[in-house]
Design a protein that fits this description.
By secondary structure, this protein is mostly beta strands. It is 0% helix and 48% strand.
Length: 114
């Protein structure tokens, strides 16, 4: 059974930083391409960052240069460092496979507000 547990969200002012973490189990993490997704109120879930099993990263234009995705194969975890946060980054953030598994975690809320 796939389990994805996100953490690290919170309330931050514009321009601030947060680091999200995702602990995984039930997948062969070392060969899995992973991604971070987000869903803002009233909007569809969108993919914001991906990382391949070899560490190649890709980002949505809206977060490029501000977010950094990384992975730790020993810990079976994937992180998202978010800098220079903007109001529009407010969303629930989820991790999942680059091709999503059917099971999603509970997500972690990120709120950017002054």
């Amino acid at each position: 059974q796939v389990q994805l547990v996100e953490s690290g969200g919170g309330l931050v002012q514009p321009g601030g930083s947060l680091r999200l973490s995702c602990a995984t189990s039930g997948i062969i993490f070392s060969i899995s391409a992973m991604g971070w997704y987000r869903q803002a109120p009233g909007k569809e879930r969108e993919l914001v960052a991906t990382i391949t099993s070899r560490g190649i990263t890709n980002y949505a234009d809206s977060v490029k240069g501000r977010f950094t995705i990384s992975r730790d194969n020993a810990k079976k975890s994937v992180d998202l460092q978010m800098n220079s946060l903007k109001f529009e980054d407010t969303a629930v953030y989820y991790c999942n496979g680059n091709t999503p598994y059917s099971d999603w975690g509970q997500g972690t809320q990120v709120t950017v507000s002054s």
